[in-house]
Amino acid sequence: MEGFRRIQGDRKMKNLNHHLVAVGGCWKVQLPSVNGKQARIATGIPLAEVEKAREERDRLLLPFQIKQKVLAAAVVEKLKQDAGEQLAAAKKAASRVKISEAWNLFPYTETTGRGVNRGLRKMTPKGIETAKSQWGNFVKWAAHKNLEWMENVGDSEATEFSRFMIDGRGVSPATFNKVMNTCGVMFRRSTGSNPFQKVPRRQAQSQSRRPFTPDEIKKIWATLDERIKARKETVVSHKGKTDYSYEVPLDAVEMSKRIEDKKLVALMLYTGMRLGDCATLTVDHVFGGMIHRTTAKDSKNIGFPIVPKLAEILGELPKSGYILPLIGAAYGKEKRETTYTRIARVLDACGFNRTAPRKDGARAVSVLGAHAFRHTFAQLCFDAGVPINEIQRWLGHKSSIVTEIYAHNPAAAMDRIAKAIGAF
Length: 424
Description:
By secondary structure, the chain is α+β, with helices and mostly antiparallel strands. Helices cover 51% and strands 13% of the residues. The strands form 5 sheets. The chain has a 3-stranded antiparallel β-sheet with strand order 1-2-3. Strands 8-9-10 form a 3-stranded antiparallel β-sheet.
């Protein structure tokens, strides 16, 4: 009985469905049930020989245990396979995005900055609107081709769409490249892939702004002086097919702005700074006979010499704040296009044709604007024999090799620049 109690304890410990059973003074092995029926196999081993009974039990039950393990492994593997397939199907279903809904789900509102501004940055409302319009070209084309899902667009569809933009729409190379890039961004954001990556970009025919000629510069100065002396302004209104013009007196604010217009032009022409950097220049930026400015576009610290002609036009500076108070406030709080428009009005008053037709037949491009003064500064420096690396340093171009402002005899370079632009 002592041996029987030990077996019962062993059975409970192992918690098996099959065990040893004492029958008529010998041990029998109870097998796992099959179809609801159980069977026992007589071992002929006396109750006293417990260890021998255990060995016989294990021998008889081994085939059943192996079969159960194999079946269990097969079941587990099947469950894993089914779960994997279900997960893949769920991911695929979740990742399916309709082309018509892609913008609402994954709007293109951020872009990667350049230079020191690397990282994601918020796009301007105008930039977002432009990107949405560019993406709209593909959405309309896909609807015409009965393409509903983003996942159904591959390299062949991207190539076909690119041919449509060239042959069907006749867009310029610059517009073509922008549309392809926007489509690529939208696919990366919504599906993680980019079928437009292999689409060759087109070589744009560059038609950049040109510098002003010496005669044009003299004309600009004369026009600015005339605008400052004027006390009335001619206004043209349109009614039907008839144009009406009449004169209105200038208020004190407009007269002050015209004085600042001349100072703004002088800053752009005699320093080569961009319009925004000139418009928002403050008194704190001027010390030691230099203008020390951190450019807004690439955050580079650059020093600009104040040549005598520039100092004469600027006159006495305010005690604090913007050097051009009205223009600076308008550029910072209102739409900066207002400042560009003022420069455009000056150039129109000079009688200049500010646009030129493109070589590729697309819409006209602006060749004379606020940025043309920056081109003029660079051209005057080139004409004066100033080394190109020194010009790049003053203009703050990212391709400049030398990062130090006062390298390669900067004092001599300043003198040459002052002589070159001081003639106008």
